[in-house]
Fold this protein.
Amino acid sequence: MQVVVVTGASQGMGKAIALRFAGDPETRVVLIARNEAKLNDVAKACRARGADAFVYACDLTDHEAVASTAAAIVADVGTPDLLVSNAGTFLPGGLLETTPEEFKRQIDINLSSGFYVTRAFLPSMLERKSGSIFFMASVASIRAYPGGGAYCASKHGLLGLARVVREETREHGIRTITFMPGATRTASWDGTDLPDERFIPPDDIADLVYSTYAVSPQTVVEEILIRPQLGDI
């Protein structure tokens, strides 16, 4: 029985990833986000695909809440075989238009939550000496652009965090993989005039996560850059 934990699982890429793994027999999918109602909808869809699904509503920017939630998951469901740190948000704005509160919010959600979640689950994974940690970063982790200062800073930081996790855990049976998708058709792009065909479908990201996880424990694809066919938006 494998345990797959997905943060930010209520919508978008997190939802797609959870549903992709839900098709595997003997899978326990653990869904974490703030919106319990949306999580319950995703859990219902996961169960319809044959997986056991567990909902844990949690504010991932609250390190104490993350620690207590992780302890409950390990006790109730088990140590993650795969931890997908996917929670994130995007608030556009130039540096002078971005308030300190808005900057901090994106750092908290996009970067600090990844640290809190990793720190909470890693001890039990190290004790077992196996497991995978996947970080959902962004093309903005390696490419800066005007009007995205807070987002770029947070995603650059997430890539740095993932690289440190990789170096500190690779000799202890833990695989660390960072995905860096470009524009993906999620709720962040609601209201755009661009056609859906211009974006990466969330299901494509889910398929890449699934296939990357499927390689043997002797192999790790450290970082994956994913872009729309026609390039960045």
User: Anything to note?
Assistant: Helices lie at 12-22, 36-48, 63-76, 100-128, 149-169, 202-213. The mean pLDDT is 95. The chain is about 45% helix and 20% strand. The first strand starts at residue 2 and ends at 7.
